[in-house]
Write a structure and sequence with these properties.
180 residues, mainly alpha, Rna Polymerase Sigma Factor, Chain: A, Arc Repressor Mutant, subunit A
């Protein structure tokens, strides 16, 4: 089912469309939520809340952005609301390794070491820089979609991405050579 059919079906209350929404976007939202929360159970709850809200708010979706961008905006809003409710900042000691959608059997030791080093370097970035890097490279979102989701100007997203990548290059050093 394509996005237009999912949107129309959810608006009509079609259970198959809701299932398609969950199966198509649930895994991507969970990956994004894991990057925000760094707690699997919290991320799962955040995705569930996001999808429930999306079903209830589907009539407000105007199509000015991609459906995933709109869903990510809801996810981010819910995450920030949870943080405000708890009156604490979520400090990430480490960022979970980014996994491809399909596991690669026999991944060699060099890639595992590089993955851990990149995850540790991401964990040392500020929240605003880490979030943009994860959205752009972890979720594969375009810069305009990232800007829309975060309600920031495109130039601000580009600037933060530039400085985040510069910090990662500096932090990781020449031995990994992952940004060349």
């Amino acid at each position: 089912m394509d996005d237009a059919n999912i949107i129309d079906g959810v608006r009509r209350g079609d259970p198959a469309a809701c299932e398609s929404l969950v199966s198509l976007y649930g895994p991507r939202l969970l990956q994004a939520a894991n990057g925000l929360c760094n707690c699997v159970s919290e991320a799962e709850e955040l995705v569930q809340d996001t999808l429930v809200a999306a079903v209830h708010q589907m009539r407000t979706f105007r199509g000015h952005s991609a459906l995933f961008t709109w869903l990510y905006g809801i996810l981010r809003y819910k995450h920030l609301a949870n943080q405000r409710k708890q009156r604490r900042m979520v400090a990430m000691d480490s960022v979970p390794e980014l996994h491809a959608h399909t596991p690669v059997p026999g991944m060699d030791a060099d890639r595992r070491v590089a993955g851990r080093a990149v995850a540790a370097a991401l964990g040392r970035l500020s929240e605003e820089h880490r979030q943009i890097v994860l959205m752009r490279y972890g979720d594969g979102m375009k810069i305009r979609a990232v800007a829309q989701s975060l309600d920031l100007p495109v130039g601000t997203v580009k600037s933060r991405l530039h400085y985040a990548l510069r910090m990662l290059r500096s932090d990781l050093g020449e031995e990994l050579n992952v940004f060349r």
